[in-house]
């Protein structure tokens, strides 16, 4: 593996999860390689106080989503893996069906064919049968479906803390070690 991580944002809600991934990667020795879909840029403007340019500056390198000739489109561009966060149902479907028509779906396809970790964080509710089948197909192909559900058993003091823990855990599937409080269990009083 290498010290590179590809982070892609698609048009689903939850842009703050992807931003947090970039912020956490900035605290590690890993290079972050960012791909933003057109819809992700629109949602960033809607959901974040940060501009698209400010988010791009969080990454070591940013690519145009239409540039299927960019380095992450090739298996010779070794990475630690790819994180698609948030992952729209359109992108999930394209990945599940091998439709590598843009740099995000091509990079995901490369991760699968090269047997590198691919983590998709789909954002949709409720799920229909097609969504679930696409998640199963990606899982069968070797991808990891990790919806960005926040956990509350550690009683986070803020939304920021809960998002950080969620993204630290997501990055751990790529082998990126980001410090976070692990659950230490609970005692049962009888």
Automatic annotation (TrEMBL):
* Entry-linked Pfam families: Flavoprotein (PF02441)
Q: Which reaction does it catalyse?
A: dimethylallyl phosphate + FMNH2 = prenylated FMNH2 + phosphate
Q: Which SUPFAM superfamilies does the UniProt record give?
A: Homo-oligomeric flavin-containing Cys decarboxylases, HFCD
Residue sites binding FMN per the record: 11-13, 37, 88-91, 123
Matching entries from Gene3D superfamilies are given as: Flavin prenyltransferase-like (3.40.50.1950)
Q: Which UniProt keywords apply?
A: Flavoprotein, FMN, Prenyltransferase, Transferase
Q: What's the Enzyme Commission number for this chain?
A: 2.5.1.129
| Protein family membership | Belongs to the UbiX/PAD1 family.
Q: Which NCBIfam families match?
A: PRK06029.1 (NF004685), ubiX_pad (TIGR00421)
Question: Its biological function?
Answer: Flavin prenyltransferase that catalyzes the synthesis of the prenylated FMN cofactor (prenyl-FMN) for 4-hydroxy-3-polyprenylbenzoic acid decarboxylase UbiD. The prenyltransferase is metal-independent and links a dimethylallyl moiety from dimethylallyl monophosphate (DMAP) to the flavin N5 and C6 atoms of FMN.
Q: What is the protein name stated in its UniProt record?
A: Flavin prenyltransferase UbiX
- Tell me what organism the protein belongs to: Natrialba swarupiae
């Amino acid at each position: 593996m290498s010290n590179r991580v590809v982070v892609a944002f698609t048009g689903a809600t939850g842009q703050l999860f992807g931003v947090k991934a970039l912020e956490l990667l900035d605290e590690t020795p890993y290079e972050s390689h960012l791909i933003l879909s057109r819809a992700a840029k629109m949602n960033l403007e809607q959901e974040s106080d940060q501009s698209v340019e400010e988010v791009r500056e969080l990454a070591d390198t940013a690519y145009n989503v239409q540039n299927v000739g960019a380095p992450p489109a090739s298996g010779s561009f070794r990475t630690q893996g790819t994180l698609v966060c948030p992952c729209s149902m359109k992108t999930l479907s394209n990945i599940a069906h091998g439709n590598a028509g843009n740099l995000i779906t091509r990079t995901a396809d490369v991760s699968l064919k090269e047997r590198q970790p691919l983590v998709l964080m789909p954002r949709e509710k409720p799920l229909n049968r097609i969504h679930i089948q696409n998640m199963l197909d990606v899982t069968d192909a070797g991808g990891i479906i990790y919806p960005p559900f926040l956990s509350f058993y550690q009683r986070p003091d803020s939304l920021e803390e809960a998002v950080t823990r969620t993204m630290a855990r997501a990055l751990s599937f790529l082998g990126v070690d980001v410090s976070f409080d692990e659950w230490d269990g609970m005692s049962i009083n009888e």
